[in-house]
Amino acid sequence: MTFFVHRFSEFGRRPGPFGATFADFAGLDLRGRRESHRRQNEAQEYWDPETGEYEVFGDYGAAETADSLFRYRLVVFSNFLTVGSAVETHSRDLELLFADLRPGAVIIVLGGTGTSYQDIYERIADIARRAGLREAGWHTDTLGRIKPTDSVAKLVKESQHRVYQYLAAVVGSDGLKRDRAWPDYWSPKPSARARPKFSLRVFRKGRWRIQATRPT
């Protein structure tokens, strides 16, 4: 049922427990949206037919309510910033998002390990530093190393296969290409050619907590 509701919300573009709060990252300004909410609810007018005048009423907690909206502690970018041009296109959006985060918020960037990705990560790191975020003292380009025989690999492939089955039900299996041996999404079994490596970069607004070491 959870899977169905998620798919229904995504493809039907209907609000729901799994629907997207924001349909597009481009132009996303959380601070601006909070300010707009405050202005709309701080003072409003309505026509009173008994007095023949406009009456003003407002939500006196509008400022506090607005300030609590769209506050995120964990932001994940996965399979989104895949080319340098995407970072350039969304640089302003990234700046606004990073600057809006409160101390303690964490950003996770997942992506490929190729040479082209290193430039992407450097650009993101530069934007993060200017916004007061600090990169973790470690990062990895070998996250996972998932083998085809691992249970995680089976779970990932089964999820991909369900998407393939859905698309096949919509457009027909003849409408989907199967002229290549890989990626073989039509098969629920993990492929030996699947890439086992991923890159991981982590940033935090403010200082990283220092774990106290216990005496041995």
Descriptive account of the structure:
- The protein has helices at about 1-10, 30-40, 60-65, 85-90, 90-100, 115-130, 150-170; strands at about 45-50, 55, 75-80, 105-110, 135, 140-145, 195-205.
- The chain is α+β, with helices and mostly antiparallel strands and about 220 residues long.
- It is extended and about 75 Å long.
How do the strands and helices of this protein lay out in sequence?
Elements: H1 2-12, H2 30-42, E1 44-48, E2 53-57, H3 62-67, E3 74-78, H4 84-89, H5 91-100, E4 106-111, H6 115-130, E5 133-135, E6 140-144, H7 151-171, E7 197-205
Parallel strand pairs: 3-4
Antiparallel strand pairs: 1-2, 4-7, 5-7, 6-7
Helix pairs in contact: 5-6
Summarize the structure.
The protein has 216 residues and is α+β, with helices and mostly antiparallel strands. 38% of the residues lie in helices and 18% in strands. Among the domains are: 72-146 and 195-206, Vaccinia Virus protein VP39 (Rossmann fold, 3-Layer(aba) Sandwich); 149-190, no CATH class.
